[in-house]
Amino acid sequence: MLAKLSAYILRVSTGWIALLGLVIFIVFSITVLPSQSAQAEQSAGETSTPDLSFYYSAEELYSMAEGYGTEGRSAYIRARFTFDLVWPLVYGFFLLTSLSWLTGKLYCQDSRWHLANLLPLAGVLFDYLENISTSIVMLRYPGEIWLAANLAGFFTMVKWISLAISFMILAIFLIQALIRGLKKAGRSDRI
């Protein structure tokens, strides 16, 4: 099933689709992210935020919920179900199409590297799981939801690991494509 999904994404990720993903990612990062970051900072005040942490315990999450205050918790939940529904789709689309297009250019059809295009899906999935679990904690605070509070930090950590590896693989593929392009250009100059 994963191989079929990977092959489908490879098939539809043309150069134009990957370019579209890049443009959407850049435009969103320039126009939407700064204002969203400012709003999140205002809501959190001096409190750290789960989204930007690598890992946190249930106790640390409850401490963040307390630090946010009633209005801050409401703003946090609102942001998770507005902005943070779209942002994972934006970076996920960019990473999926870019990795797929580059993988298709660099590796033969039966290469296991083609499956690397699925890694961003883990980042998106765990981002949504993080948003749901932290929102439940913020919504129910000061009541405790043991399962959501204890899983939230794990979801966040897996999200960051998946995304970091996705961006590292993307960088490696870009370097490989650049080297291949330079070698090809060098050979054509000699002809």
Explain this structure.
This protein has 191 residues and is mostly helical. The protein is 81% helix and 0% strand. The protein is built from 7 helices and no strands. α2 packs antiparallel against α5 and α4 packs across α7. The protein is elongated and about 70 Å long. The mean pLDDT is 92.
What features would you highlight for this structure?
191 residues; mainly alpha; 81% helix; elongated
Rg over CA atoms, rounded to whole Å, is 20 Å
Category from helices, strands and their pairing = mainly alpha
Point out poorly predicted stretches: none
Oligomer: single chain
Residue-averaged pLDDT: 92
In short:
With 191 residues, the protein is mainly α.
Strand-helix topology:
Layout: H1 2-12, H2 15-31, H3 33-44, H4 58-80, H5 83-106, H6 119-140, H7 146-190
Helix pairs in contact: 1-5, 2-5, 3-4, 4-6, 4-7, 5-6, 5-7, 6-7
